[in-house]
Each structure stands twice: as structure tokens, then as C-alpha cells.
Amino acid sequence: MARDTGRNERGRSEPGGEELLRLVMAELEELQAGDVEVLDVRELTDVTDYMVVATGRTSRHVRAITEKVVVSAKHRGAPPLGVEGEREGEWVLVDLCDVVVHVMQPDARELYQLEKLWSPVMALREQTTGAPAP
Question: For the chain, what is the domain count?
Fold first, then answer.
């Protein structure tokens, strides 16, 4: 999507959206994030290719998961464009450009229901174009 998968300022190859998604999923699995959902939003927005929503048990768990994602992405040459919510640890967003990661505590995830926010958009796309939602 937005990230050029060419070389970064250090001459290292930057990962593309699918490679970043695999990296994120591996880190989420390693740190036992719960209820991981991947939303493929490539056809719905220019902001990102994938949104990943996951649950951490506590604020400490949420921060540990997102810190691991950030460190791994940096090592792969894809430092985040931004990280929000680290101090509170209730909902942390990591913007990796092609992949946006949301790690939330259970109460926050239930309250905001990000997956349901995108469901009407995906369903509308399917109705108007006949193409299945990504």
C-alpha cells in the first residue's frame, strides 16, 4: 500500500504489507494475544492494507505485545509511523503503514467493537459490487 517496499535509509529491504502482517501475527502468537482478527481493508481505504485487532489480558500484557511488535518491525526495517496509548495500556495502536495493529484489553475491545465498525462497509461493498468482502 503506502510503504514503498524498496530500500530504507540504511539500505535494508523494507517489508511489504503481507510480510509485515506475517511478522505481526507471529509476535501476537508468541505473546499469546487473544481473539486475533485480521481485517483486509485494501479495497475499502487508502489508509492501510490490513487492520489487526487483538486482546491483551492486562495493561502490562497489552504493552508487552505492542512493544514486541514495534521492536520486531524496527529490526525488519519498518519502524512504526506512530504508537498511541502505551502509557495507559488499555488500547494501544501501532501504525506500521500497511498494517495497523490494535491491541486492547477485553473491556475496551467490547466497548469499541472495531470489527463491527468495518462490517457495514464490507457488506455494502459486497452488495454494490457483487465482490465478496476482503
Answer: 1
> Looking at the domain assignment, is residue 11 inside a domain?
no
- Residue 8 vs residues 70, 81, 99, 109: alpha-carbon distances, Å: 17, 14, 17, 34
Each residue's pLDDT tens digit, 90-130:
999 999 999 999 999 999 999 999 988 877 655 555 555 66
Which residues make Cβ contacts (< 8 Å) with residue 25, sequence separation at least 6?
36, 38, 52
Three-state secondary-structure class, residue 5 = coil
- Tell me the whole-structure pTM to 2 decimals: 0.81
- Whether residue 102 contacts residue 52, with contact meaning beta carbons closer than 8 Å, is answered with yes
CATH code at 82? 3.30.460.10
In a domain, 9, yes or no: no
pLDDT tens, residue by residue, 37-70: 999 998 888 999 999 999 999 999 999 999 999 9
Residue range of the domain that includes 54: 17-124
